[in-house]
Write a structure and sequence with these properties.
With about 350 residues, the protein is of the alpha/beta class. It has helices at about 5-10, 30-40, 45, 50-65, 105, 115, 120-130, 145-150, 160-170, 170-195, 210-230, 265-275, 295-305, 325-345, and strands spanning about 70, 85-90, 95, 135-140, 200, 235-240, 260, 280-285, 315. Helix 8 (about 145-150) packs across helix 10 (about 170-195) and helix 10 packs parallel to helix 11. It starts with 5 loop residues before the first helix and ends with a helix. The protein binds coproporphyrinogen III. Coproporphyrinogen III (CP3) binds near residues 38, 139 and 155. Belongs to the uroporphyrinogen decarboxylase family.
């Protein structure tokens, strides 16, 4: 049973007694106990053992004092169910053995079957729902970000094959995006039915597109995911990822509660661009965490002073935690955000 719902109230823009905190990629390699588990099992092996996956999700909640848990999984996990073979390779990331590059490849993709192929994920969510005192966030990869892996076959800096398909074969492109959108919507609905209290759509790399291309080639599919979940009042978060500032004005019709901002956009400017309709989440540059504590506090204070000007602010990073981050500094930052915001709200 949840006894701390400050994160859910902030998602809805309601009154809070302090600013909630969680960190993207909070379950992971900065934690020596996680690294020990990783000596024995790969990410996918952990995900297939619900008790262990739940344990990994719980670790940052206990160690960092954050106000939300995030499911230990990866954005790639559900694509196995639609017919894509992949591994997550150390020091590289997702590597796809049968990349999708033409009409035949797209036609061969099957609809997702969550019960058949991903029951271990639902089981992990159910365990966490029983054990957690804070809300559980689950997530899916957004169509563009997943497409960038499954078309390229591995992480890319240029997105050359992805953009080639997008600009040259718009019909094939939209068909692929439609299938990935259906997959995400079905998968997230199953998460919510199993006990997820909030869902986030990760579109980490969509900021590589010009705004008008985002609008034409991607946005309709992101909109369709959230439209198809609009009967569920579970808070929904869209994270348009790195360098997404120029895309923000196009997000005003999304049926979400929260938009995640990256650190290049000042919070007030981000709020203005999305029309003041949504709660915001962000946006500390993760590498600020390399600085001494007083410098980290200074950056956090600046974000809090700005973020707290309006209701609906969730403290987070502007992108995921990096492996070299320090547990002690993260715990200290969480405490600082709580204490400073509580004091300001009480005053
Ligand atoms: O946030 C969490 O703590 C929950 C777990 C989580 C993972 N991946 C586990 C993981 C989440 C939310 C993700 C999302 C994810 N995966 C994204 C979106 C967020 C972002 O960072 O932009 C993306 C783009 C991926 C794809 C992916 N998975 C990459 C590029 C890599 C390799 C790079 C890296 O960080 O190592 C992965 C592997 C991965 N996913 C790891 C973890 C903990 C690291 C390797 C491992 O521990 O096995």
């Amino acid at each position: 049973m949840i006894n701390n719902d400050v994160f859910l109230r902030a998602c809805r823009g309601e009154q809070v007694e302090r600013v909630p905190v969680w960190y993207m990629r909070q379950a992971g390699r900065y934690d020596p106990d996680y690294r020990k588990i990783k000596e024995k099992y790969t990410l996918l092996e952990i995900c297939k053992q619900p008790e262990l996956a739940a344990e990994v999700s719980l670790m940052p909640v206990h160690k960092l004092g954050v106000d939300a848990a995030i499911l230990y999984s990866d954005i790639m996990n559900p694509v196995a169910s639609i017919g894509i073979d992949f591994d997550i390779v150390k020091d590289i990331g997702p590597v796809i053995h049968n990349p999708v590059r033409n009409a035949g490849d797209v036609d061969r993709l099957k609809p997702i079957d969550v019960e058949r192929d991903l029951s271990h994920v639902l089981e992990t969510i159910k365990i966490l729902d029983r054990e957690l005192k804070v809300p559980l966030i689950t997530f899916a990869g957004a169509p563009f970000t997943l497409a960038s892996y499954i078309i390229e076959g591995r992480p890319t800096k240029s997105y050359i094959r992805t953009k080639t398909l997008m600009y040259s074969e718009p019909k094939i492109w939209h068909s692929l995006m439609g299938k990935l959108a259906d997959m995400a919507a079905t998968y997230l609905r199953a998460h919510i039915q199993s006990g997820a209290k909030a869902v986030q759509l990760f579109d980490s790399w969509v900021g590589s597109l010009a705004p008008h291309d985002f609008k034409e080639f991607v946005l309709p599919h992101v909109e369709s995911i959230f439209a198809s979940l609009s009967d569920l009042d579970t808070p929904k978060i869209y994270f348009p990822g790195v360098s997404s500032g120029e895309l923000l004005p196009h997000l005003t019709d999304l049926q979400v509660n929260v938009i995640g901002l990256d650190w290049r956009v000042p919070l007030t400017e981000g709020r203005r661009r999305i029309g003041g309709k949504f709660a915001i989440q962000g946006n500390l540059d993760p590498y600020v965490l390399t600085a001494p504590s007083d410098v980290i506090h200074e950056h956090a204070r600046r974000l809090l002073d700005e973020g707290m000007k309006e209701p609906g602010f969730i403290f987070n990073l502007g992108h995921g935690l990096f492996p070299e981050a320090s547990l002690e500094k993260l715990r200290d930052l969480t405490e600082y955000v709580h204490a400073y915001s509580e004091e300001r709200i009480a005053a």
